Amino acid sequence: MRAPVEQVRRQRTDPMHSLNFEEIVDRFYPMLYRFALTLSRNEADACDLTQETFAVWAEKGHLLRDETKVKSWLFTTLYREFVSNRRRETKWPKEDISELENELPSVEPETVDCLESGQVMEALQALDETFRAPLALFYLQEHSYEEIAEMLGIPIGTVMSRLSRGKGKLQQALLQKRAEAERKIVPMRQPEGGSRG
Fold first, then answer.
1. What are 47-91's pLDDT values in tens digits?
2. What's the rounded Cα separation, in Å, for the pair 77 and 72?
3. CB 50 within 8 A of CB 32
4. Of 17-26, 33-42, 130-139, where does mean pLDDT reach its minimum?
5. Is the predicted pLDDT of residue 14 greater than 80, yes or no?
6. How far is CA 73 from the centre of its chain?
7. CA gap 150, 133 in Å, rounded
8. Taking Cα atoms as reference points, which of 64, 171, 65 lies closest to residue 127?
9. Is 12-90 CATH 1.10.1740.10?
10. How far apart are CA 41 and CA 122, in angstroms?
11. Is 151 in contact with 126 (CB distance < 8 Å)?
12. What's the CA gap between 172 and 123, in Å, rounded?
C-alpha cells in the first residue's frame, strides 16, 4: 500500500514528471537513431540500440533530476549500450548468414542529390569508432565539446583531438573517393568521320 503513495509523491516532486515517455521518444528518436546508425553501421543494430536506450530510459529515467540533461543522458546511454554490445560481440561473435544475403532487397538512393551526403556518410562509416562517435555527435547531432566529453566519458582535450584527427581522416577518405570516381570517368569518343555540322 505504501509504494503507490510514495510513487505519487515522487511524481509530484520529480522534475521529469513533466516529460512523458511518448514525448521523449518523439523528440529524440530520430537523432538517437542517426547516431546509432553512425556507430553500428547497420540499420537493424541501430534500431536495436535505439530501442535499448529507450528501454533503459523507461526503467531509470525517473532518476534524472535535471530535465535539461535528457538529451545528454540518452546519447550517453546509447553509446554505453553500443560499447557493451561491441564487447559482447567480441566474446561471442554473430554467425554469418550469407545464405540469406541474396534474398535481401537492394537499397537504391532516393535521389541523385543525396549522392554527396551519401558519400560523406559512407566515408564517416569507414572511420574507426574512436573518431566516428565524436564526429557524429559534433557535426550531425550538434553537441558541444563538454557534452561529447560527458557522453563518451573522456576529457574535453581528447574530444578536441579526436575531432581534429577524425576530420583529417575523413577529408583523406573523401579525397580518395573523389580520385577513384575521376578514374572511372570514360571520355566520350569523337565520331570517326569528323564533326557533324
1. 899 999 998 888 888 888 888 888 888 999 999 889 888 887 776
2. 8
3. yes
4. 17-26
5. no
6. 15
7. 13
8. 171
9. yes
10. 9
11. no
12. 9
Domain 115-184 classification at class level:
mainly alpha
Q: How far is it, in rounded angstroms, from Cα 27 to Cα 17?
A: 16
The beta strand positions in the chain, using DSSP E, are: none
Distance CA 81, CA 88 (A): 10
CA angle 31, 73, 36 (to 5 degrees): 35
pLDDT tens for 153-178 read 888 888 888 888 888 888 888 778 77
Instruction: Look up the pTM and report it.
Output: 0.48
* Burial (0-12, 13-18, 19+ Cβ within 10 Å), 125: middle
Region label for 117, one of left (φ > 0), alpha (ψ between -120 and 50) or beta (otherwise)? alpha
The answer to whether residue 186 scores a pLDDT higher than 50 is: yes
Per cent of the chain over pLDDT 90 is 8
| DSSP letters for 60-84 | HGGG---GGGHHHHHHHHHHHHHHH
Q: What does the domain layout of the chain look like in residue ranges?
A: 12-90, 115-184
Nearest 5°: the CA angle 166, 148, 29 is: 105
